[in-house]
């Protein structure tokens, strides 16, 4: 077994000074240079690689996370993130041509620069301690920010290993780790930031947003959700069971995207439950407790919360149901419930519970799902194309996996909506979320002849200005789109196209 460092909380007195170092480094423009960012990310990659065994061991000690899950969803995930980012960074960071610009403004060479935001804060969650803490930080570094990282104290070994990795690889004047619990996080939140990226529960998310408001600090909130799986009568019960069981056994259900409850067409409930039992035996022939491939609940507090959810259910346990407090073990547990008001459905379980409610049809399922929480993080419809389209067009959610569990394409934008948060990252979005799109125009001196129409005295200029700049509607007073828009545009010199703009520019030039 590889030895792990001890987690030591950062002293409260040290926090303002550490932030001011990072802020100063930003103001000295240290992180503006793309090559500097690339070198930091590449060094981080190798430090992760060199400490991979410690990452896997820390995840095992914090959560008894299986080696497979730690290698795939923690170390492997963030290393892939870095390679993907470093490969694309020049392309993402390049100035963009401004889209749909009228010809009359084209001479000003309008473009969009991607400016770093400044000195930013990343606050991580415990369940994927490396992926969800270093993941946002990778994007922040790529975008040219200086970054303060606060890992979750609830995965203490992972937090300590993360510190070792960051300190072994990154420039300490630009990137730093603050360790601690609530007092340390509150001390961080009392400071001014250029952006805060928070992953965690909605209660703390609200605390973060409130703390950011007096400074007008933008915030990304990656929160949880009471995610439904909706199973139509046309779904394949075997796929439903195998995929949704996987969604709940990963990290023992401590996954923000895993389904919280199932709404299953009443004709399919029996078959789906049977298939859950078959899949459970296939995945864990010796039972989940004796398997090396099943995590434990993070701490006694979380265990007690989950136990009370199960103790209070009015449903019938059809599979699993065993627990061991000493080991913080909870078995994957299928429960047939009578209503969405059941204790297993009304809050996010963040544990291995699979409550199933029988519904009459898809309409009932959609109405119930929208009633429980209309903006969950994930939504998982199972059925044929028409069923899925019906669910998609009558619901909202951060993301959707059709005929599957969890959301798992690592480079797709990932984020919530409404109660599940706001802002998104991953893939290119991890860069975009950390930059300000700064429009830049440059007016050449020869343009003065045309620009002089904007200067006083205004007498006689308005009609010429309007002839040059007015866009004419291609819709009537009833909101209907007019036909033959191009003909009209030709006659009115309006319409916003490059050609129309050229016409207007000609009128303007002729009038000078
Ligand atoms: P949490 O909200 O308890 O804690 C997250 C962070 O907030 C920790 O770093 C913690 O130190 C800090 N914190 C806790 N209480 C605080 C307070 N009063 N003031 C200031 N800071 C405080 O979340 P968690 O238990 O680590 O994670 C579980 C939750 O996170 C679940 O709701 C889950 O759905 C959600 N989550 C969301 C995502 C996502 O990407 N959307 C990913 C993982 C987890």
Keywords:
Aldehyde Dehydrogenase, Chain A, domain 1, Aldehyde Dehydrogenase, Chain A, domain 2, 18 strands, globular, disordered C terminus, binds nicotinamide-adenine-dinucleotide, NAD, Ald_DH_C
Question: In summary, what is this structure?
Answer:
By secondary structure, this protein is an alpha/beta fold. The protein has helices spanning about 15-25, 35-50, 50-65, 65-95, 105, 130-140, 155-170, 180-190, 200-210, 235-250, 270-285, 300-310, 360-370, 385-390, 430, 450, 460-470, 485-490, 500-510, and strands at about 95, 110-115, 120-125, 145-150, 175, 195-200, 220, 230, 260-265, 315-320, 325, 330, 335, 355-360, 380, 400, 420, 435-440. The protein has three domains: about 20-225 and about 425-440, Aldehyde Dehydrogenase, Chain A, domain 1 (3-Layer(aba) Sandwich), CATH 3.40.605.10; about 230-410, Aldehyde Dehydrogenase, Chain A, domain 2, CATH 3.40.309; about 460-510, no CATH class.
Can you describe what's shown?
One of its GO terms (cellular component) is cytoplasm. Keywords: Carotenoid biosynthesis, NAD, Oxidoreductase. It comes from Penicillium bovifimosum. This is Aldehyde dehydrogenase. It contains 19 helices and 18 strands. It is of the alpha/beta class and 512 residues long. The chain has 3 domains: 19-223 and 427-438, Aldehyde Dehydrogenase, Chain A, domain 1, CATH 3.40.605.10; 228-408, Aldehyde Dehydrogenase, Chain A, domain 2, CATH 3.40.309.10; 460-510, no CATH class. The strands form 4 sheets. A 7-stranded mixed beta sheet has the order 10-13-14-9-8-15-16, with helices on both faces. A 6-stranded mixed beta sheet has the order 5-4-3-6-7-17, sandwiched between helices. Helix 3 packs across helix 4 (67-93) and helix 10 (237-249) packs across helix 11. It is globular and about 85 Å long. It starts with 13 loop residues before the first helix and ends with a helix. The model is unreliable at 494-500 and 506-512 (pLDDT under 50). The protein binds nicotinamide-adenine-dinucleotide. Nicotinamide-adenine-dinucleotide is lined by residues 123-127, 132, 150, 152-154, 181-182, 185-186, 199-201, 204, 207, 222-224, 256, 348, 350, 377, 416, 421.
């Amino acid at each position: 077994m590889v030895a792990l460092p001890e987690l030591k909380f950062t002293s409260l007195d040290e926090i303002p000074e550490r932030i001011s170092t990072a802020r100063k480094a930003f103001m000295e423009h240290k992180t503006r240079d793309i090559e500097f960012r690339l070198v930091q990310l590449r060094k981080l990659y190798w430090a992760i690689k060199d400490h991979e065994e410690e990452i896997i061991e820390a995840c095992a000690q914090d959560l008894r996370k299986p080696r497979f899950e730690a290698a795939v969803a923690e170390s492997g995930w963030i290393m892939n993130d870095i390679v993907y980012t470093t490969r694309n960074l020049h392309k993402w960071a390049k100035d963009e041509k401004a889209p749909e610009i009228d010809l009359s403004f084209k001479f000003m060479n309008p473009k969009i620069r991607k400016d770093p935001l400044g000195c930013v804060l990343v606050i991580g969650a415990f369940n994927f301690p490396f992926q969800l803490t270093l993941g946002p930080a990778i994007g922040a570094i790529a975008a040219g920010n200086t970054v303060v990282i606060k890992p979750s104290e609830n995965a203490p070994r992972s937090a300590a290993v993360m510190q070792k990795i960051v300190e072994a690889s990154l420039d300490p004047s630009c990137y730093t780790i603050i360790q601690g619990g609530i007092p340390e996080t509150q001390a961080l939140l009392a400071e001014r930031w250029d952006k805060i990226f928070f992953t965690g529960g909605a209660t703390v998310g609200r605390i973060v947003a409130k703390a950011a408001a007096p400074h007008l600090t933008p915030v990304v909130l990656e929160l949880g959700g009471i995610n439904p799986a909706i199973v139509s009568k046309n779904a394949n019960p075997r796929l439903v069971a195998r995929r949704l069981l996987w969604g709940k056994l990963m990290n023992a259900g401590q996954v923000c995207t895993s389904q919280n409850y199932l709404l299953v067409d009443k004709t399919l409930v029996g078959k789906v439950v049977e298939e859950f039992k078959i899949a459970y035996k296939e995945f864990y022939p010796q039972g989940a407790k004796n398997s090396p491939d099943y995590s434990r609940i993070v701490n006694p507090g979380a265990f007690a919360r989950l136990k009370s959810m199960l103790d209070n259910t009015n449903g019938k346990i059809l599979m699993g149901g065993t627990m061991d407090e000493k080991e913080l073990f909870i078995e994957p547990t299928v429960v047939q419930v009578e209503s969405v008001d059941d204790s297993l459905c009304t809050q996010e379980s963040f544990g291995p519970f699979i409550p199933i409610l029988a519904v009459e049809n898809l309409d009932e399922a959609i109405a119930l799902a929208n009633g429980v929480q209309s903006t969950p993080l994930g939504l998982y419809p199972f059925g044929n194309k028409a069923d899925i389209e019906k669910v998609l067009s009558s619901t909202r959610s951060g993301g959707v996996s059709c005929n599957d569990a969890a959301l798992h394409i690592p480079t797709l934008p990932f984020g919530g909506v409404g109660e599940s948060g706001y802002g998104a990252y991953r893939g290119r979005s991890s860069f975009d979320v950390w930059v300000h799109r700064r429009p830049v125009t440059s007016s050449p001196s020869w343009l003065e002849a045309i620009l002089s129409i904007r200067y006083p005295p205004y007498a006689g200029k308005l009609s010429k200005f309007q002839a040059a700049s007015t866009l004419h509607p291609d819709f009537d007073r009833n909101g209907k789109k007019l036909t033959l828009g191009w003909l009209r545009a030709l006659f009115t010199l309006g319409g916003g196209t490059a050609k129309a703009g050229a016409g207007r520019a000609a009128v303007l030039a002729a009038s000078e």
